[in-house]
User: What shape does this take?
Amino acid sequence: MRVLGIESSCDETGVAIYDTETGLRAHAVHTQIDLHAEYGGVVPELASRDHIRRLVPLIRKVLREAGCELAGIDAVAYTAGPGLAGALLVGASVAEALAAARSLPALPIHHLEGHLLSPMLSADPPRFPFVALLVSGGHTQLMRVGGVGDYQLLGESLDDAAGEAFDKTAKLMGLGYPGGPKLSQLAESGKPGRFKLPRPMLNSGDLSFSFSGLKTAVLTLMTERTLSETDRSDLAADFQAAVVDVLVAKSIAAVAKCGLDQFVVAGGVGANRHLRDQLNAAGTRGGFSVFYPEFELCTDNGAMIAFAGALRLQSGKVTPGSGAFAVSPRWPLASLS
Ligand code: KG4
Ligand code: ZN
Assistant: This one.
């Protein structure tokens, strides 16, 4: 069975074909970074218009690369939420139209379910059940994953997501958009520990996070003094260490609480090298294995959507598309079944 996957929830247009027999056949992503860079963040209307321009050529390219005709596709999966309403509607309308034209099932997929399952596409995949840390631009959540559609929320951010904190702090420091990769790159040349940034909610005794205070702490430091280049790198390293320390401590607590020995990291911040190093070390110490998606599948892509669609088809857990291009910009993952 071959599933065409379409992702358009934010600033990446992603398309892929996943075959349940032979695996990922082809995938392509068009990023809108250049389009939004001059505005310092994603402009929703520009995002929607660009998805319209890119999606059909990208579908053609992926079909070509997979050596496949539209007639060889058995289902069309698309991101139905959460995300930007206009951007989601582009993917939803193309997917629903393709499915209707070819009498195929259209599979509306939760974007975070895509991220959550994406490590299962790698050469060394985890098996259910596992604990997952979802760290993206919009979400920071710890989940217990029992199987497809079995997602128990263990804790989440009470304010900014980890990626959002990276992006906002990078903007404050004049690093531009997208902030996460730029800030972590600057942190590479810095030494953490000089600025003593707080570790918010580290000892709160639960699995909640709070990251909005960190950018305020950075802002306060920046208004108090003029930072040299070395100061800026050290501050970036301190900020990164503060976020990572909290993410790692709560991840260890979540693994212990669930009594499981597999831990999955998904979402854009999962590309962060320092986070990976610290989680790997925690896994070695604590006797649990840590799984990541392939590097190129950490950020938004169509492969994770095609894959989630295929798993849902295989397990019979399919919520049919409405055919009416309905999307859910806000949609709690734990409400899935
Ligand atoms: O999962 P994703 O591509 O999109 C959402 O669903 O949000 O995640 C994007 C987020 C952005 O906030 C970006 O700054 C962050 O992931 N990010 C990183 C790194 N690469 C991407 N944050 C820290 N370090 C990185 N290397
Ligand atoms: Zn995402």
Notes: Residues 229-258 form the longest helix (30 residues). The two ends are 22 Å apart (CA to CA).
